[in-house]
Amino acid sequence: MSIGAKLMVARASALFEEYCSESSVHGVRFFVGKQRSVCVKLTWLTVFGLSLIGCGIMIQQAYNKWDRTPVIVTLSEVPTPVWDMTFPAVTICPEIKVSNTVFNFTDQFETLHREWYWAQQNSNNTITVDDDSIGKMKAIIHHCSGIYMNDKNFIFNFNHILEPNLVDFLKKVSLDRRNVFTMCGSTSDTRCTNYMQVALTNEGICYSFNMIAQEEMFHADVLHKEYKYLERWDEDGKGMPASDGTNDELLKVAGSGLDAVIGFNIIHYPLKIDTSCVRGRGYKVLIHEPTVYPDLSKRNIRLSVSQTLTVALKPNIMMTSPELTKYSAQKRQCYFDHEHPLRFFRLYNQDNCELECLTNYTLQRCGCVHFSMPHTNETRVCLLEEAHCPTEARGHLFIRKQRRNDTNDYLQRCDCLPACSSVRFDLQITQDSHSEEREVRTTIETQEDLLAKLQL
Ligand SMILES: *[C@@H]1O[C@H](CO)[C@@H](O)[C@H](O)[C@H]1NC(C)=O
Ligand SMILES: *[C@@H]1O[C@H](CO)[C@@H](O)[C@H](O)[C@H]1NC(C)=O
Ligand SMILES: *[C@@H]1O[C@H](CO)[C@@H](O)[C@H](O)[C@H]1NC(C)=O
Ligand SMILES: *[C@@H]1O[C@H](CO)[C@@H](O)[C@H](O)[C@H]1NC(C)=O
Ligand SMILES: *[C@@H]1O[C@H](CO)[C@@H](O)[C@H](O)[C@H]1NC(C)=O
């Protein structure tokens, strides 16, 4: 070793000794000192080294945790008044899709069945039911129970006969909504039909309360022009001009508790039901955000006839601080409005994204889509003989099979994370039946009797 190097080492060790004896870091002092034994020095060095390693591991863990989940959910300390919120949308789907006063489906279907059967037996083809009626029946069967979709159904021998414009026809044969919703109102606003729209869902024709309009929901330039997905309650041709645009506003929450209740009175007409085309009785109800396009197959509440359903809502508002925009969406596990543009929907939220994903998947798998799915003018709506395909596509997309091929996971590719600001509603449901009420008879029979007694 040269003199220079020796000098360097001596200088460095002097510096180290000086640093150690003067440092305020605990323990370092014991590394040096002529009076201390090597054993003590080594012990202290080991302890110091171990604590450094311990710190390092903890820092690593903290970093990993932050890296995996940089977002923490906390309860907001600032309460928000409830009247700043928009009232949620309520979508009600009657199970009865076809009124027998418009088209006697049972009668026509049975006649056709009989005649077809005879024609098969006697090898002559005298079928008196006209093509128009057969087309209508095929349109109606889209809504009937799944049994009709059995591929042995004789109606599939009439595949060459065209169906009428499905949506228009189904709107025409549905029960008159003004008779179905006899009352709808709230303490704050009694003109509740102003907020009602006719919506197309996978359950057919439904009625949505307090949802945004078609123009706000969809990109009009991509969508076909054949029919509308959301139509104002009064926009069906006759009378009632679309008024000054005040109706475009959504209803705000008027307050809390039963005082701010919104009520619907729905009437069921047992005599108008076509008994061969029923899937059940009553209604399906979905409560959702006004910007979400309803999908009743995902979740719904069943309301049967002669029942009162009371639903208390507790909003769960989730907001994401704008500072998190600098993290990737995968890290924060949510999308801000502009980050994941959808093709058909203007507004991003998880449900709309999944619906669009389902539409893409259905189109890819079947070559056609269900009429309630948004589509371009180049895409056709599935005909009756293909109608089983969208149902299967749905099951295939959303139901995770045990042995699933991950490389082929379409839903994952759609990347439908939740929206960064969203409202979820926790529901408290009470249900009671009217029939019990009727059993408890009061001593005074009718209201008129009571009135007469009071006036005496
Ligand atoms: C439908 O046709 C059947 C058989 O002809 C008949 O009994 C029934 O009353 C008809 N229904 C209506 C609402 O016209
Ligand atoms: C053809 O069918 C009708 C019933 O629709 C039947 O009355 C008639 O006898 C049949 N004709 C022949 C030749 O089988
Ligand atoms: C779809 O719409 C575009 C633009 O309006 C039009 O050019 C095109 O021919 C339409 N396609 C079909 C299949 O109708
Ligand atoms: C998953 O699907 C892809 C494409 O269909 C295929 O190439 C691959 O072998 C499949 N993997 C498994 C484990 O089945
Ligand atoms: C559906 O397909 C269209 C066109 O291929 C695409 O632009 C859109 O992003 C797709 N939607 C989703 C949710 O993946």
Q: How many separate helices? A: 13
Sheet/helix structural class: alpha+beta
Question: H/E series, N to C?
Answer: HHEHHHHEEEHEEEEEHHHHEHH
- Which strands sit side by side, in order, in the main sheet? 5-3-4-1-7-8
Proportion of helical residues: 25-40%
Number of strands: 10
Distance between the termini: 128 Å
Shape: elongated
Radius of gyration: 34 Å
Ions, cofactors and other bound molecules: 2-acetamido-2-deoxy-beta-D-glucopyranose
Topology:
Layout lengths: L2 H20 L15 H31 L20 E6 L10 H17 L9 H11 L24 H8 L3 H4 E6 L9 E6 L2 E6 L4 H4 L12 E3 L29 E5 L16 E6 L12 E3 L3 E12 L10 H4 L17 H17 L21 H11 L11 H5 L7 E12 H6 L7 H9 L1
Antiparallel strand pairs: 1-4, 1-7, 2-6, 3-4, 3-5, 7-8, 9-10
The chain binds 2-acetamido-2-deoxy-beta-D-glucopyranose (5 copies).
General description of the model:
This protein is an alpha+beta fold and 456 residues long. Among the domains are: 3-68, no CATH class; 105-158, no CATH class. The protein is 32% helix and 14% strand. The chain has helices at 3-22, 38-68, 105-121, 131-141, 166-173, 177-180, 214-217, 329-332, 350-366, 388-398, 410-414, 434-439, 447-455; strands spanning 89-94, 181-186, 196-201, 204-209, 230-232, 262-266, 283-288, 301-303, 307-318, 422-433. Strand 3 (196-201) and strand 4 (204-209) form a beta hairpin. Helix 3 (105-121) crosses helix 4 (131-141). The protein is elongated. The protein starts with a helix and ends with a helix. One 2-acetamido-2-deoxy-beta-D-glucopyranose binds at residues 405, 407-408. It is found in: Membrane. It holds the Pfam family ASC.
